[in-house]
Amino acid sequence: MTTPRAGRREWTALAVLCLPLLIVSMDVSVLFFAVPHIAASLQPSATQVLWIFDIYGFVLAGLLLTMGNVADRIGRRRLLLVGAVAFAAASLLAAYATSAEALIVARAVLGLGGATLMPSTLGIVRSMFHDEAERAKAVGIWSAAMAGGVGVGPVVSGLLLEHFWWGSVFLLNIPFMALLLVIGPILLPESHNPSARVDLLSAVLSLAAILPIIHAIKGIAADGWWLTELLYAAVGLCAAVAFVVRQGRVASPMVDLRLFRHKGFGGSVAIQVIGMFGVMGNAIVITQYLQSVLGLTPLVAALWSLVPSVVVGAAAPTAAALSTHVGRPVVMGGAFIVAAAGFVGMLTARADSSVVPVLVAATFVAAGLVSVATLVTEYALGVAPAERAGSVSALVETAGEFGGALGMAVLGSVLGAVYAARVSDLLPSGLPGSVADAAAETLGQATVVADHLGGGIGQAVLDAGRTAYVDAMHVTDLVAAAVLVVGAVLAVTTLPRRAGGPSAAEPQVRLEAGSAAYGERG
């Protein structure tokens, strides 16, 4: 039987799908520059500032699995359009929020809208592109849009804040969502699985597992290993165990555990975690280096950080095309090595060097990790039966959220620990104990101390902080590189060469038959 090929309509529809994806990913980073403006206008407490930042990602991660299953049940296009309305409405509420509490609520609704949009877009891609090579190229474009949104967010935010008030960073979402609502019903096909069911207890357990664990990871990254964070993690792990047990017992599970019997599916989820571990770890290291070490303004730093995107835009489609000749595992393994080489290349960066070395190294990191994300997402979609595309997309994206949180926590902790140990040896003698302790906390605190002291002693504190940060960055880069090498080994050793084809045909048929059986039982 000949596999149907995609035509102009499908590729145009893919471009339409990239609109919400770009906006959802931009909203992860669009507040980077807006916080001082929001603080001046709404006067939030320190805790409220954290919630303004974090609630979007928390809700997004917590509801991805649930919304992926809702998409399979009611239709992926239908949920996408509902999500577009919710996202536009929440953007309007956020733009004109008159209190910190109102902005937090609006950001939570934005996270809900984002959770409906992301798995729906990828599920529709799965239903439109049946040919393996075309689907790989389409997912490559999807991944490039996702990565591009995160990178463009701070730049767009900075440009808007030069001319408008802070709410403009949210109003930008509305015309894109309106365009999707107009064009989507015309170009996007509807696809769903009428036999799918949404198990409410599974939805509650997924939230009870994901939210506490991500909260604990973020807390450990910020404050260290405190009892409160460990309790959050314990609650989340218990809920996760209960969630997995229930998935094996209900007629229509949110996560079809039998997918993990397919050789390579579990490995692909692990690879997604490792890939996003590197992405977010790289982000926290580079952002502070550009601003606090090299002294670039936030907007200039954001503009420079777009340089790797020029290469990244071509890396994902190139990796997808290459994988059809040598196999995804080999290309993923090679991409991990390229990214690891980029982390090693950052060892050339110094406190007094130009921006060029770190940008060249970051380009290798970004190109490698975006290629991995593209291929592993397409691999998981290729394994899954089409009627489970929404839930499988949500599972892959949830794994990415965990990987990103782990990257921030683990690499952030390494960065902080090495900085504190190194800066104590570099600070000028004779500083009061409280001043030295403050400078040893973070490079940001060292900068504040230096500004307060002024003169030669202030410059000496700043130089010590910058040198210590670069030393800590180098250690962190080596840790990240080692983790990515593990990812390369996993890719080559645990994944079969192809997600489909003769070797995978029988498991694929078995999965589709199993899905049909689920429908009969439901």
Could you describe the 3D structure shown?
- It is built from 20 helices and no strands.
- Residues 500-522 have low confidence and may be disordered.
- It is mostly helical and 522 residues long.
- Among the domains are: 1-195, MFS general substrate transporter like domains (Growth Hormone, Chain: A, Up-down Bundle); 199-251.
- It starts with 7 loop residues before the first helix and ends with a helix.
Tell me the layout of helices and strands.
Layout: H1 8-29, H2 35-42, H3 46-74, H4 76-95, H5 100-128, H6 132-163, H7 168-171, H8 173-187, H9 200-223, H10 227-247, H11 265-293, H12 298-305, H13 307-326, H14 328-345, H15 356-383, H16 389-426, H17 433-441, H18 443-453, H19 455-494, H20 502-521
Helix pairs in contact: 1-5, 1-6, 1-8, 3-4, 3-5, 3-9, 3-16, 4-5, 4-8, 5-6, 5-16, 6-12, 6-13, 6-15, 9-10, 9-16, 11-15, 11-16, 11-19, 13-14, 13-15, 14-15, 14-19, 16-17, 16-19, 17-18, 18-19
